Amino acid sequence: MAFRDLREFLSALDARGELKRIAAPVSAELEAAEIADRAVKSGGPALLFENVQGHSVPLVMNLFGTMGRMCLALGVSSLEEIGERMKEVIEPEIPSNFLEKLKMLPKLARLADFVPKTVVSAPCQEVVEKDRPSLSFLPIVKTWPGDGGPFLTLPLVFTKDSGTGRRNVGMYRMHVYDETTTGMHWHIHKGGAQHYRGFRRKRERMPVAVALGGDPATIYAATAPLPEDIDEMLFAGFLRKEPVELVRCKTCDIEVPARAEVILEGFVDPEELRTEGPFGDHTGYYSLADQYPVFHLTCVTRRKDPIYPATIVGRPPMEDVYLGKATERIFLPLLRKIVPEVVDMNLPIEGIFHNFAFFAIDKRYPGHARKVMSAVWGLGLLMFSKFVVVFDADVNIQDLSEVIWRIGNNVDPRRDVMIVEGPVDALEHASPIPSYGSKMGIDATRKWASEGFGREWPDDIRMAEEIVALVTRRWKEYGF
Fold first, then answer.
1. Does the annotation count 362 as an active-site position?
2. pTM of the prediction?
3. Could you tell me how many helices (H) and strands (E) the chain has, helices first?
4. Which residue among 52, 167, 292, 465 is buried most deeply as judged by most CB within 10 Å?
């Protein structure tokens, strides 16, 4: 089922016993974050803080903190279901006759059904505050002691290209400086930063709108690594199986989710930079303070009784790992379309999305593993993968025990390691300079004679299948 908004999702969680209402007074400074950290680490429920000290607006955290809730958020029993739907879109059957062409029409029509719809009135505009807009009504969380201040951590940031008008929606943390200004943490590799550079070249103010508390599929879509020409709101409609309703902002020409809880309208000045951070990040370390653009608030629109959503990041596992795992499963079919020899992919939780990337491949020719490494480093945000490890197709790369065992046994470091230089994630703190460093590829496949391996490669130790079947059949007879 598709949830129309955050409230419907919370109601569903409540009905399933996966929403914990906390009536006791709680501080938004560190205390709420510590509670949420314990909840996510233990696989606990979503948390609705109903009494945040100094605020009348409730705070909800840990919305996506288990794989079950991530699936519920996207309306599936398994994330692979979305991957299969993606496959239908990117690998349509080629019709061989007129009847098959007719059968394809409904599929094509369904794609059109996901295009966002514009409405003229919306719940997110029940209250409009233009004269003296302020962020002070929101229970904005300070997560870690060393943070530079409170941060908006689950914002959907809407921008448009200064030339084409094409929309981008991204999730970029926002360091709150005061009631009307925040930092805008646009990494240089992201879509929002690309739009910002366009406005800087023109020396024009950049309109920006920030949605807080959309429906769960729309929140996820803002995190998805989509190609530049794919609209995140169209993708959200695809996930929901129904279009997202958008409404035009009151003070700028940007459309935002009509059923969001709060909309922040404003602008980013093309020349202004301010110190942003430090921030306790998903790497498990503080990302260092640096100069970033500044968002100026000019208007707040909201529901009469808004709910403020937030997340915390830190040393994994954290809530964001389930968003990352959703991306891994959903986009695997797209990866296979470009690199068809890939059988499976694992971006392990401990690798925080970009430190480790494991691939099982159908190895077909000498040097094939190195070809896959190079392909991975050329694919969107996979370019940040610091360690790319390639395995044979029969390796279960979802099993970290098997992964480490295969690497230890199959790799000769001098022969099987490839080191390259290129862009690295902006949060990478080990590289000598920001955003540029080295990456390692490791070939953990079986080595062939055609790759210069002159010895016999040993077989895995496996019991005979007939003995396995025999023992399975007689297991209770043995007294177990």
1. no
2. 0.89
3. 13, 23
4. 292
